[in-house]
Amino acid sequence: MLACLVSSESLPILPSAAPSHPPPPLLAAAEGELPAWLAGIGEKKFRAGQIRRWMISRRIQSFEQMTDLSIGLRQQLADRFSFSSLQTVRHQVAGDRTEKLLLRLHDGELVECVLMRDPGRKTVCISTQVGCAMGCVFCASGLLGVKRDLTAAEIFEQVLVLHRLMKEDEKITNVVVMGIGEPLANYNNLMQALDVLCGDHGFGLGARRITVSTVGLPRQIREFARCGKQFNLAVSLHAPNDELRTRIVPVNKGTGLKAILAAADDYFDITGRRVSYEYVLLAGINDQQDHAEELAGLLHGRNCHVNLIPMNGVSEMVMTAPGEPRTHQFCDLLKDRGIPATVRKRKGADIDAACGQLRLNRTANGSVVEGECAG
Questions:
Q1: pLDDT tens per residue across span 49-65
Q2: Is residue 243 flagged as an active site residue?
Q3: Which CATH architecture is the domain 30-80 placed in?
Q4: pTM attached to this predicted model
Q5: Is there a contact between 342 and 281 (Cβ–Cβ < 8 Å)?
Q6: Which of 97, 115, 150, 336 has its CA 20 to 30 A from that of 36?
Q7: Which CATH number fits domain 86-360: 2.70.150.10, 3.50.50.60, 3.40.50.300, 3.20.20.70?
Q8: Which entry of 113, 304, 355, 373 is annotated as an active-site residue?
């Protein structure tokens, strides 16, 4: 899902650290824990709001920069809490100013997130799991399997880390949950993180500025629809029939397109939000005219949009993207049949990369090694 980048600028690769047990990250504190702790050390509870504003709204890198707090309180914060649970292992910058981070978690596991810049729009793409269990055959994210879910704090903190990369006159306008992992398989933690993103005590983003991508988990899609907010839903379809989709997306065997489309229809009926269908184009596999015709028939009459994504090549896989003529023929046929469709614009187009590739390029002992992200 996530477009990995190979950089023209990179931070040095840090050696892998053995998992340690630092103080708990501040943003992972349970509701009420920070005010209670402040009261216990003789501070006013309103300081909790000040601290959260510093953590979320301002681009600081340590407790020491919270200059309207006393030096003593800043030191006590540093003794009691970690400023962040995420460590930047590699920072990559593309020619179009797209930035990608490889982040190490407290237990040594790795995830990726991306900042994408367009005129009037700054989008961050975040991960929800360490690895992925869905097994999509074209995606590097799942080659190592799934290790664990990210916590709500780890999901949300990716946004904070990317926010700190931005200039003072820049702000995050959109969030796409399309990184490593299946978001709806980590539903509760995802929703807690989105609540912070949308809340006045967080970034105050409107739900319509947040898109969640899923391989298609019908029960969770319906639960997502009933959450009471108008998030955008993107379903990773990738094939117009069950036989082909099960080859490409093995988890489809236990669900099937009929159930997924029915759940997506319910999402539209409940929220009124048009559903997007993502379709990764694989040369000679799902990119033929017959596939486009079948896809148009499958989506006929639905209020939807198809987002065509030429595959980002991965060195561990033999599949490739079709050429531009084939890609645009596929898109034009859908539009001719009345299905709105576009070809996704690649960010960092001057470099090749693929989702999960940075995480994949590790030695057996877990350290990060130099390697070209092929995409």
A1: 999 999 988 889 999 99
A2: no
A3: Orthogonal Bundle (1.10)
A4: 0.87
A5: no
A6: 150
A7: 3.20.20.70
A8: 355
